[in-house]
Amino acid sequence: MPNKGGDSNADKRGPPEWVTNAKTLPPASNRSALANRSEPLANATINVSLRGNASAADYRLAAIDALQTTEFDAPGSSADDHQRQALRELNESLDYVLDANRTTSAQLFERDKEASTPPQFAPSVTKLLVRSDERLAHTAIADADRLATTLRDRNVSFDESAVAENLSAARAAVGRAERFRTRGQQHTAISQYRVAWIHAQQALDVLDLSTTPNVTITTREDMAHDGNITYAVRGRVFDVRSHELALNSR
């Protein structure tokens, strides 16, 4: 898989610092806020719908809601067992949510795959998870695309070939995922969105190698004072993944 100059920890990466309009994840306890209805996703036992511009987090929380509030028919206790396991996996997946359309780890996709196993169990819930993972993959690709453009605009050199290779591989995985969805193989599509997300993170790793954190002080000048004085100095930090700087500075 393409990963020239990249980081082996690409499956634990997040978004670049400069991404704008990042939505805030709604609290997991406030799931009634997901009651925006317009786009039906239903089967014989579940009827869930969301607005057309719903985020990855919206779809994820809706899937958890559907699992919590729906009764499933299956022999013996198998339905209850599958329901408990799926809820456990999806609740754990929330640990990897960074914001509305971004995740910190490929482990989130693994949790989704486990939650949607077997594929015949709650297929509409699986569709919600696939929609969530689709958003995550597309956002990661867009992040890498945007950062590459930003660095070019700043005349910063980077390994264009490695970035292009990884982004091409990411888009190819998205294409495979969508073909699986067309054939009704939602469960398999999750794995391909995971591949797409990892390649996008590897592209970001390559871009990260070409730049270092940059701090621009925006405080205009020292205020007039005699002797020692303490005051806040304000500035802006540019880095591919500023959230990592915040974590490492604690």
Describe it for me?
The chain has a two-stranded antiparallel sheet. It is flat. The two termini are 34 Å apart. It is built from 7 helices and 6 strands, in the order E-E-H-H-E-E-H-H-H-H-E-E-H. Strand 3 and strand 4 form a beta hairpin.
Instruction: Write out the strand line-up for the largest beta sheet, numbering strands in chain order.
Output: 1-2
Per the principal axes of the C-alpha atoms, what is the gross shape? flat
Structural class of the helices, strands and pairings? mainly alpha
Helix content: 40-55%
Biased composition (Polar residues): 21-35
Region (Disordered): 1-36
Give a quick summary of the entry.
By secondary structure, the chain is mainly α.
Could you outline the blueprint of secondary structure elements for this entry?
Elements: E1 39-42, E2 47-50, H1 56-69, H2 78-93, E3 97-99, E4 102-103, H3 107-115, H4 123-153, H5 160-182, H6 186-209, E5 214-217, E6 235-238, H7 242-248
Antiparallel strand pairs: 1-2, 3-4, 5-6
Helix pairs in contact: 1-2, 1-4, 2-3, 3-6, 4-5, 4-6, 5-6
